[in-house]
Write a structure and sequence with these properties.
Strand content: 25-35%
Number of strands: 4
Strand order of the largest sheet: 1-2-4-3
Helix content: 40-55%
Distance between the termini: 6 Å
Radius of gyration: 13 Å
Structural class: alpha+beta
């Protein structure tokens, strides 16, 4: 089944401007967790390539590391895509949810 990451269920969207915002978003995502959730998280980043790469790296590695620190499952899938004319986006969601949705 073909799908676009924007079609996945989202519980919270973070509109980030820099790496500091990314670190705060990571803390919040890890605190809220992915376990027993039927939705994921969306991170919006400015379309400036250098900033987007830094934010993307901070978010993906930060979530993995944070979940490891909490001894939670790190089986998270993520996709990066062009969200609109001004933003790239990353959608992070548990692999179990993706399987349950049939994607």
């Amino acid at each position: 089944m073909d799908f676009h990451p924007k079609d996945l269920p989202i519980s919270k969207t973070y509109d980030l401007k820099d790496e500091k915002d990314a670190a705060d978003a990571v803390e919040d995502m890890v605190r809220l967790g992915f376990k027993d959730k039927k939705e994921g998280f969306r991170v919006l980043m400015p379309k400036e390539s250098k900033i987007a790469k830094r934010i993307g790296y901070t978010v993906t590695t930060g979530v993995t590391y944070g979940l490891k620190q909490k001894n939670e499952t790190r089986d998270i899938r993520y996709w990066t895509y062009h969200h609109d004319d001004d933003h790239y986006a990353i959608v992070l969601i548990s692999s179990n949810v993706v399987s349950d949705l049939g994607f």
